[in-house]
Amino acid sequence: MSRIFQFLFQFMRKYLCLFMLCSCVLLKAEHKSSVDSLSVRSDAQKGWTFGALPCVAYDADAGFQYGALANIYYYGDGSTYPNYLHSFYVEASYTTMHYGVFRLFYDSDYLIPEHRFIFDISYVPNAMSDFLGFNGYTSRMNADWIDPATDAYKSKVFYKYQNNLFRTSADIEGTISDHWKWNAGLGVLGYMTDAVNVNMLNKARKEGNKLPNVPTLYQHYVDWGIISANEAHGGWHPYLRGGITYDSRDYRTFPTKGIYADAFLTYSAAFGAQASYNHLKANFNFRHFVSLYRDYAVFAYRVGAQSLLAGRSPFYMDSYFNTLFLQRELYEALGGGNSLRGIMCNRILSKGFAYANIEFRFKLVKFDIAKQHFYIGLNPFLDGGMVIRPAYLDEQALQQVFAASDSEFIGDYFDFSSSQLYAPHLSAGIGLKIAMNENFVLSGEWAAPFNKQDAPNLDSFYVKFGYLF
Predict the structure, then answer these.
(1) Could you tell me the domains of the chain?
(2) Using 50, 70 and 90 to split pLDDT, how confident is the model at 260?
(3) Cα four-point dihedral sign 51, 54, 56, 57
(4) Which of 130, 179, 387, 410 could form a disulfide with 402 if both were Cys (CB 3.0 to 4.6 A apart)?
(5) Per-residue pLDDT for 268 more than 80?
(6) What's the per-residue H, E or C state across the chain?
């Protein structure tokens, strides 16, 4: 409990002042409606609201972040508030762990009448993406191997690899009847993967703190033939997506009641050296929101699954969490601040996985600054995920590889027992939210895994925007 209070104190001290300062310099232009509608809330925002912030944040998966972002909302006459008619989001940022976000995002219910339209173009370079092997607990994580203070130390980047992603997508949603919607989308995912560039990382390090140039787990997987030469360096994959949605939520960003459920298929094509990796994946997602006391206390949970249905998928596509609407810059397959908080990114890397997130969302206090509506909230949570369709690992072939080695043992890398393969990965934590006009939400979350195999530091801290779901 003392760790939770320490997290809350640090977040308030470091980020509340920054957020308030930036909010005071927001530029706001209102287009007044000549007609007063009784359907418009008395506190509703109208017209255009423009917010700009420096990207000064910290993520346990990516390091200290610097850059800038801007978010523009258009509410029209305010009759749809807190839902917006148009949203534009632009970000250019980079982190001390060489993780970047360069993104343009547009979301509208108005551009195409009676349809929701989303467009996204992003480049997300990551010099040190997490790679802990396939199938969750089947692949063992040895914390001593990345701890320089131990005799077993290999390298701080032993469980890392280079994973740069370019993505562009366009998605549309239309109404079937009442709360039922149809969805369609297309896009391109371009992955550029490789071993960690140790020489580049060492340029910024002082003597005595250089990274050793030793093989990483990713390089071992390539050498052992688990990752084939055709997929080792990524590839380009155009995709088509279609599905249905049921949405009875009252609001989009902070629902107080209702259900959101979707089921969709994604077909990804492949060309050239990756031509054999055409594949079809299925996704199911169910979210439920229950008001415990007006909008001050809400119980929210999400359950879902993703699985390969047909074809072959390269390992780097298994690390991507398919979604109908892109709210965040990246969706890692299970693990990390965008799926299982407190658990290392890509901890559950398999052909199919299931997940659940449970939260209590509280609005502690509401207030206004310069005609902008704010609230401070708290959200304790529990996250969990597991393998449901494992990636193929040839145990017999691996036994032969390790039998020929005098210094490596298969038990240090793998545990092939079925009890480990399907064991759930669990974590819990608490978050603090500072929101402006319901949609612009600064989020700080602390989380810890139940099993030390899921994170070497035993806890993680994230600063992001918005709610997880």
Answers:
(1) 131-465 (2.40.160)
(2) very high
(3) positive
(4) 410
(5) yes
(6) CHHHHHHHHHHHHHHHHHHHHHHHCCEEECCCCCCCCCCCCCCCCCCEEEEEEECCEEECCCEEEEEEEEEEEECCCCCCCCCCCEEEEEEEEEECCCEEEEEEEEEECCCCCCEEEEEEEEEECECCEECCCCCHHHECCCHHHHCCCCCCCCCCCCCEEEEEEEEEEEEEEEEEECCEEEEEEEEEEEEEEECCCHHHHHCCCCCCCCCCCCCCHHHHHHHCCCCCCCCCCCEEEEEEEEEEEEECCCCCCCCCCEEEEEEEEEEECCCHHHHHHCEEEEEEEEEEEEEEECCCEEEEEEEEEEEEEEECCCHHHHCECCCCCCCCCCCECCCCCCCCCCCCCCCCCCCEEEEEEEEEEEEEEEEEECCEEEEEEEEEEEEEEEEEECCCCCHHHHHHHHHCCCCCCHHHCECCCHHHHCCCEEEEEEEEEEEECCCEEEEEEEEEECCHHHCCCCCEEEEEECCCC
In 3D, which of 440, 432, 429, 397 has the Cα closest to residue 416? 397
How many CB atoms lie under 10 A from the CB of residue 163? 27
- For residue 174, the model assigns a pLDDT of 97
**pLDDT at position 59, please?**
58
Task: Please tell me the distance from the alpha carbon of residue 318 to that of residue 52, in angstroms, as a whole number.
Answer: 34
* Percent of the chain clearing pLDDT 90 (strictly above): 68
CB 342 within 8 A of CB 455: yes
Cα 194 to Cα 332: distance, rounded to the nearest angstrom = 17
pLDDT value of position 63: 66
Cβ atoms 157, 238 nearer than 8 A: no
- Give the tens place of pLDDT for each residue, 108-162: 988 999 999 999 999 999 999 999 999 999 999 999 999 999 999 999 999 999 9
Residue 244 CA to its chain's centroid (Å): 22
On the question of pLDDT at 12 being above 50, the answer is: no
Answer yes or no: are the C-beta atoms of 280 and 309 closer than 8 Å.
yes
- Per-residue pLDDT tens digits for 300-315: 999 999 999 999 999 9
